[in-house]
Structure formats: structure tokens, C-alpha cells
Specification:
Radius of gyration: 18 Å
Shape: globular
CATH class: Alpha Beta
Mean pLDDT: 98
Largest sheet: 8 strands, parallel
CATH superfamily: NADP-dependent oxidoreductase domain
Low-confidence stretches: none
Number of helices: 10
Number of domains: 1
Number of strands: 10
Amino acid sequence: MSLTIESTVQLNNGTPMPLFGLGVFRIPAGRITKSSVLEAIRLGYRHIDTAESYGNEASVGEAIRESGVSRSEIFVTTKLTGGNQGFDSCTRAFNESLLRLGLDYVDLYLIHWPVKDLRLESWRAMEKLLIGGKVKAIGVSNFMVHHIEELLNHTDVVPAVNQIELHPYNFMYRKNLVDLCQAHGIQIEAYAPLTRRKKLRHRNLRKVAAKYGKTPAQILIRWALEHQFVVIPKSAKPARIQENADVFDFAISADDMDFLDSFNRNLIVCWDPTNAP
């Protein structure tokens, strides 16, 4: 598979989305977020993932405006927090996110996590935002099989993306969800792809990394890319931001992909919404 840092996938509504991006979860607002985003853009990243709940949307927008790169070349994702779900509150929250970002539009707007009795109303509001043109695509995050099925049963607008925690150590645990999304043209996006460093010293992972002359983190990122998952490793350190992007000069063999897929330990390092109502 030939991939570059500019490689994109086409979402189910025709919107191109970069396969590789920078996540800014828990990066402090202000100078640190701004410098991280600027460094990533300088290195060729063209996809930045933020959220209302991260508190750093304004810093992301400031970096994008100061980067010297055309807005049309940078894919920006933000997300609706649980506390603002519902039809009217979703619309208000989106406009507030857009104002904080200082942008004319957002490329992707996600429901950050499923909230019972409110997520369908939130989705209706997002459909309206999509029609209005201020967002190019809409999707969800942390939606499990029953959440996706509920949504599919109540809408004609299929989510463009489902952003979930995904890496070799929970791949089989999430396999039914991945298969369901792919069957309906919903792009899988992997967050926490580096397992929050919990598995970077795993012997078998290090064995694969040594074979390719790469770091364990780079193998995990490339694994996601080989599966055609959008992947958004997070870092505020320039050296790590550069290391994470150095994954486009090799490919993992089919046998090694099968080996990596077998690492499953049902590991969840963030929140597990499997049993969320």
C-alpha cells in the first residue's frame, strides 16, 4: 500500500479526509497547543482533531490562521460534549465552537459520546448544520454497535465517521463494531492508537519494530494506516510529532499485520462505552 502524509479517504458524503492527523486531547490551551499544531502543520500534517471539552479550540484556530497554509488544505474536527447534547443546545454549542476556532466552517463535527435520550436530537441538529454548510461532514465518537444501530434506524443520514479507541490490543474486541461501520460506509477513526504508552514495551511489538527499523509507536500508527483507519496520535513534543509522522516510507507485510492483529487483550485505556445505555 502506497501512502503519503497527504493520503486521504473519501467519506460517505464525498468529503476527503486525511488518514493521518494530530490529536490535541489534554494538551493545555495557549502556547503549548498552538506551538504543537504549528509544528505539526510545518511537518506536513493537514488534519487537526480537537473538541469542545478539550478547552483548546481557540489555540487550534489561532495556529491554523498563523500557519501560512490555506484553510482549505487543513481538515479540522471538533466535537459536541455530553453536557450540550440536545437539538437547541447542540446548535448553540456548534456555533460557539466555530467562534472559538475563529473559522468559517468545520470539516467534521462529531457527537463526542452517546448520551441516552439526547443523542438522536443532537443528530437531528447536526443534520441541519450539515445542510447549512458550516460543517462538511458529521459523525460520532465512542458509539458502540447498539448506538450505531439505533442511529441507523432513525436517520437517513449515515454518520461519516465513528471515532473510537483502537489499536492491536483491542482490535478483536472492537471487530464487530468495525465490521458494522465498514458495512455501512462509516469511516473508522482510531484515537489512543499508542495505547497511552501502556504497550510500547511489549516484547512482540518491539520485535516487529526491530524488523522494520521503526519504533513501537510508529508500528502502531502504521498498523492503523494499513487497515485504512484514520489515525490521530497525540503529542505536544516536537520530536514525537515528527516521529509519529515518519511512517510513510514502509509498509507492514500481510503476515506481520496478522501477527499484530493477534495482540488483542481487550485492552481499553480510555473510557469503555460498550455497556453505555
